[in-house]
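Bug report (template v2)

What were you trying to do?
Predict the complex of my protein with BIS(adenosine)-5'-tetraphosphate.

What happened?
Run completed; filing so the output is reviewed.

Input:
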Amino acid sequence: MRLLIMGAPGAGKGTQATGIAEHYHVPAISTGDMFRTNIKNGTELGKKVKAIMDAGDLVPDEVTDEIVVDRLNQDDASNGFLLDGYPRNMHQVEALDAYLKEHGLHLDAVISLDVDPELLTQRLLKRAEIEGRTDDNEDTIRNRMKVYASQTEPLLDYYRSSGILVGVDGVGEIAEVRQRIFDALDSKN
Ligand code: B4P
């Protein structure tokens, strides 16, 4: 399986990605997690992206495309993958399409988690209390939502018109949403 999971900040992408990836025996590849690991380890890449992430802006495409391609080229992704948080704008879609074409591959489905904007903010502020992520504060959340609406949400139309978009209601218990995702993917195949 080659899958993408999309959704606004707080929609549950990272939360659901692990369970879905385990189910299909593919790696979950999260650009956000890769950037956060680099920040934590104090790498050059981490230094480059920290202020951008703290502001809730998108990391430059050339940096993001490169880490994704490097990760997709690793052996464990050769039989499939679940991309979480990538692509996030049309340029990244084109970069991913070019990679897939070059390798004779295609995406099986794009999961879109739908959640009401007010609930998204509540979830992120709750995470701020528990995990203290530096981008989970009201100002940054507002910007992340804006960036999502202007740059990422339009991608849903692109994947809808390709016939691979699977919309899933992301409101409810985490296990309940996960089951909805499996049901939606099963009924698509
Ligand atoms: P991400 O790491 O993708 O952050 P996110 O959008 O908040 O999603 P995340 O996966 O962490 O949260 P989730 O919705 O699962 O991106 C962070 C930053 O990295 C971006 O702002 C950008 O700067 C940079 N970046 C990443 N990818 C990039 C790219 N491709 N290009 C450029 N820049 C990029 O969960 C949120 C909270 O909701 C959690 O606390 C969770 O427990 C809770 N939750 C989830 N599901 C729930 C449910 N059903 N019920 C109750 N709570 C739930």
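What did the reviewer find?
DSSP finds nine helices and five strands in the chain. The pocket of BIS(adenosine)-5'-tetraphosphate is lined by residues 9-15, 31-32, 35, 52-53, 56-59, 64, 85-86, 88, 92, 123-124, 127, 135, 144, 172, 174, 177 (CB under 6 Å).
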